[in-house]
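I am writing to request your help with a piece of structural work I have in hand. The matter concerns a single protein, recorded as an amino acid sequence and a row of backbone structure tokens. Could you please explain, in whatever detail you think fit, how the structure tokens follow from the sequence? Thank you for your consideration; the sequence and its tokens are set out here:
>
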Amino acid sequence: MKQEHKNKIGAANRSRFTKSQDKHLLGRMVALYMDGKTLGEISAATGKPAMTVYRWVKNSGATMRKVGDKHRGRNWSAARRLHHPETPPRDPNAPRGYEILTQRALGSRTISTDGYVLIHVGRQKKQYEHILIAEKALGRPIPKGYVVHHINCNKQDNRPNNLLVCSHAYHLALHARMRRHPYWKQFH
């Protein structure tokens, strides 16, 4: 498109408000809008489409209201209150969002990829059930370098009498000894 055509189009757009009646109409629209009238009411009063009213008022620099501003600061009518009953105030200590999901999940059991039972113990925290049970039976945390061994080799049998707390070296020796015996084949 040539520059002279662009200039003509720009001039045509700029000459929209050259008529005094359009300037007067724009002033009236802005005044009605500032008085709290809706775009639909202004449209009915001026005979211009609502989108034209919106565009003219917005381009004039007036601050546009949000949809809910009509009700902001006023008491609700009985009909509106019927459909939107008041909610009781929320307890500030009550859990919100992910914490609610976490509380629902606390204590839930899942099976890990290596076959052990996992217990959900906190916000994005899971622990092996056999370690929790062994620590409870001992009455203290398992010392560093120690592991929990399942006596019957069933990773999901977490009864306290099936768990043995032993050092890592003893655990390796125990598994080496178990592999040498014929009953080991039934487990692996």
Observations:
- Residues 174 and 180 are 10 Å apart (CA to CA).
